Amino acid sequence: MNSTRTAPERPRGLTVKNGAAGDKVFSGLTLAAGVTILVVLAFVAIFLTIESLPALSPSLFSDQDSIDSADSFWDYVWPLMAGTVMASAIAILLATPVAIGIGLYISHYAPRRIATPVGYVIDLLAAIPSVVYGAWGMTFLAPLLVPIYQWLNTYLGWIPLFAEAEGASVTSTGRTLLTASIVLAVMVLPIATSLCREIFLQTPKLHQEAAQALGATRWEMIKMTVFPFARAGIVSAVMLALGRALGETMAVTMVLSPGVFSLSLITSGRNGTIPAEIALNFPEAFGMRQAELIAAGLMLFIITLLVNMTARWIVSRHKEFSGAN
């Protein structure tokens, strides 16, 4: 007696047809999502450009002779642009090594019973509102850093970053650009750490085991396999964190005392950022003043766009890397 059983024959073309229909629907949804993002981005750019024209070209508008805050728009906006870039750059310089170190500890050094809660705590930091970070930086961190700033001025005052600004002395409140940068570094740390941790965990196990089988130590294995594989991911994580730092408003507004631009990082009232300037002045602004602030926002939009384009270019240079070369 033949005990071989045959499966019931499936109607031909049913799976393929359903699969093709599902592919078309999903492809259409993803295309619509991508087009929506581009359309929204285009509308934002168009809005900022149109509303900024009175400030960028006041001579074209008969009812407006010049901007209110400076002799020209560029005299007004370049100190804000410089302060924004300085604060974000310092924050990234402080946060990147710490983020990479924490990511490596969670992924390759810490036992699971420790790595899991540490990862949860890092992720929870991203859920804290920026106003809480601002309050912490203003009331706790800033006074704590005042003696450190005085020490930096005493022993490293020959460096312009730690010298007294012209017409001002070392801060007595701690509300300086460096304090704002430290707060920004803490804020962007969860984003960079989470992305670095995930990309480190994706490193092929066979490559790591092969390096250790050849006699490499754990650190040598990380240098030979993990870092090359995660290079593009680290760049993406850093640039995403930089985008967050460039656009942060409330924390910087609460910590920083805006004022004229200076290279000094330890003097209050000598630096400002574009987001803080807009947050402080936009509610009461109208006419040319409103155009100035929107034009400043356009400059921030361009800076962020350039940063992301540079990041994509850097990542694309290493997109061929598969972990095997």
UniProtKB/TrEMBL annotation:
Give the bilayer topology: Multi-pass membrane protein
User: Where does this protein chiefly localize?
Assistant: membrane
Transmembrane regions listed in the UniProt entry: 25-50, 76-106, 118-136, 177-201, 221-242, 293-315
One protein family per Pfam: BPD_transp_1
Output the GO biological process annotations, alphabetical, semicolon-separated.
phosphate ion transport
Keywords attached to this entry: Cell membrane, Membrane, Phosphate transport, Transmembrane, Transmembrane helix, Transport
GO terms for CC?
plasma membrane
Q: Where in the cell is it found?
A: Cell membrane
Domain of life according to the entry: Bacteria
**One MF term in the entry's GO annotations:** phosphate transmembrane transporter activity
Q: Where is the ABC transmembrane type-1 domain?
A: 81-311
Q: Which protein family is it in?
A: Belongs to the binding-protein-dependent transport system permease family. CysTW subfamily.
NCBIfam families under this entry?
Answer: phosphate_pstC (TIGR02138)
Q: What does this protein do?
A: Part of the binding-protein-dependent transport system for phosphate; probably responsible for the translocation of the substrate across the membrane.
UniProt-recorded name of the protein: Phosphate transport system permease protein
Lineage, broadest ranks: Bacteria, Bacillati, Actinomycetota, Actinomycetes, Micrococcales
